[in-house]
Structures are given as structure tokens and as C-alpha cells.
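Hi all, posting the design record for the shared folder.

TITLE: backbone redesign
STEP: 1 of 1
STRUCTURE INPUT:
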């Protein structure tokens, strides 16, 4: 897709990756619809972008049915007014580094809802208001293909998003709407607690800069890459885990003592 002058809806716009995605796409002359819960943060982001007047805001809490409906009704109204929307980027998400036994049921439900149910519902609604041709890009995680201790429900929700994206891409074949899936690895954002940051450093895990991730998002849109995994050796481990998971399990087992130590530290914090 040539994103110049294309109108793209971005959820989670004020997050660490979201704000960088917005900046990168705005610099490439895309017109953005920025979605978030905090109006003041959204307006500050809008004013920081290239050509701020070309971008629009939707203040909506995606954790609520009302928030999702607000997006749908606003985009439907724009469609009736002849304002095209060329793409949807499902970027909003959350994670919680904790043992499953220590999680509150509401926390589990909220995480799965935001990471999986919300993008599914937005994709369903977007089929009513997206112009053709159009792109849907779902932002996932390498943990969608590698089950990792401390992130059981996050892995589950992102794995669901990956399979949903694959199935919807095939379902929409020939309709003018393509569904893409991009899976970053660990990224330096405020979603990471102090314990997670320290754990990654202890294990020697590479942590990507959100600006670089945002640039990969843009390339994914431009090249219309159906599935892309970010980071080495993570992208290799994804392939290995699909075919022969034993080496991946063995590598994680060697980390298990350290992971448990930081799970305990996260519980204390």
C-alpha cells in the first residue's frame, strides 16, 4: 500500500509503540485516526505529529462495549459523509508478568479481552466501513508462537490473534481487504515493569527500540507482508518451536530458576 494520504485508524495510539507508529506514519504523509482513552494525551500526540490538522481523534475505552461502539459509529458516519478509511492497525494491548496462580480472574479476563476479543470485534466492524482496497494489521508478539513462563494468558491471547489473523486473511481473499500480522519481540515501553526489564537484562534478551518497531510496522504496510516476526534469534525460535519444540523448551528450562526469582520479585512489587 502506498500510505501517502491514506487514512489509517490506530488503536493504542498513546502507548510506547503506538505513539512511535503514529509519528512514523505521519512523517510518511499518512492521515491518522488516533484512538485512545485519554483525550489530553491524544491531543498532545496529534499536535506533535507532522501536519497535525490532517489527523483525527476518537476518545474511546476499548475495554468497554461503549468504547468499541463509539469507534464503529464514528467510522460509519465518516463513510456516509464520503470520508474513506483505508486501514486499521490493532495495536492496543496489555500484558502482565505473573504466575498464573497469582493472577486475579478479572485481570486475566481483561487481558484476553483487550488482546484478542477487541481486535476481533474491531475487524468485524471495520469490514462495514473500510474502503477497498484496504489493510488490517494486527500487532501480535513472538509469544504468540513461543509459550513463555510468566506470560501464560498473554501467550494465549496473542496466539489466538495470530490464528484469527490467518483465518480472516484467507476468508477475505479476493474481497479487497488483506489481513496482516506483525509480531515484535521485547520492546522498551512502559508496559514492562521494573522486574521485567531487570529479567531481560539478566537473561541477555534483546530489547528493541519502539521507533524501530514502528518503522517495521510501516514497512509491513507498504510491502503488504502477511506475517512477519521481528528479532533474531526469536524469529528462528518461532520456526523451530513449530516443528521441533524440544530445543526451545530446553533453552527456557535453563532460564526457569531466574524466571521464578523475578516472578517472586514481581509479586512483591
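Okay, here is what came back for every position:
SEQUENCE:
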Amino acid at each position: 500500500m502506498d500510505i501517502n494520504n491514506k487514512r489509517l485508524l490506530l488503536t493504542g495510539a498513546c502507548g510506547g509503540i503506538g505513539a512511535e507508529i503514529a509519528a512514523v506514519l505521519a512523517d510518511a504523509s499518512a492521515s491518522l485516526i488516533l484512538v485512545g482513552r485519554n483525550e489530553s494525551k491524544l491531543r498532545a500526540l496529534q499536535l506533535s505529529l507532522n501536519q497535525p490538522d490532517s489527523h483525527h481523534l476518537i476518545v474511546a475505552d476499548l475495554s468497554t462495549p461503549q468504547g468499541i461502539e463509539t469507534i464503529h459509529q464514528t467510522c460509519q458516519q465518516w463513510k456516509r459523509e464520503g470520508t474513506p478509511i483505508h486501514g486499521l492497525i490493532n495495536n492496543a494491548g496489555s500484558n502482565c508478568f505473573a504466575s498464573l496462580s497469582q493472577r486475579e480472574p478479572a485481570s486475566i479476563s481483561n487481558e484476553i479481552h483487550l488482546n484478542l476479543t477487541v481486535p476481533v470485534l474491531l475487524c468485524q466492524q471495520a469490514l462495514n466501513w473500510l474502503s477497498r482496497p484496504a489493510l488490517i494489521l494486527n500487532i501480535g508478539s513472538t509469544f504468540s508462537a513461543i509459550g513463555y513462563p510468566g506470560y501464560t494468558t498473554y501467550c494465549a491471547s496473542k496466539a489466538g490473534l495470530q490464528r484469527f489473523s490467518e483465518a480472516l486473511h484467507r476468508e477475505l481473499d479476493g474481497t479487497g481487504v488483506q489481513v496482516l500480522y506483525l509480531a515484535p519481540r521485547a520492546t522498551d515501553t512502559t508496559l514492562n515493569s521494573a522486574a521485567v526489564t531487570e529479567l531481560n537484562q539478566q537473561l541477555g534478551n534483546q530489547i528493541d527500540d519502539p521507533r524501530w518497531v514502528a518503522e517495521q510496522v510501516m514497512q509491513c504496510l507498504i510491502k503488504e507482508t502477511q506475517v512477519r516476526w521481528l528479532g533474531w534469534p526469536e524469529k528462528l525460535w518461532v520456526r523451530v518451536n513449530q516443528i521441533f519444540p524440544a530445543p526451545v523448551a530446553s533453552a527456557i528450562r535453563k532460564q526457569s530458576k531466574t524466571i521464578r526469582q523475578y516472578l517472586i520479585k514481581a509479586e512483591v512489587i
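COMMENT: The two ends are 45 Å apart (CA to CA).
Let me know if anyone wants the other runs.
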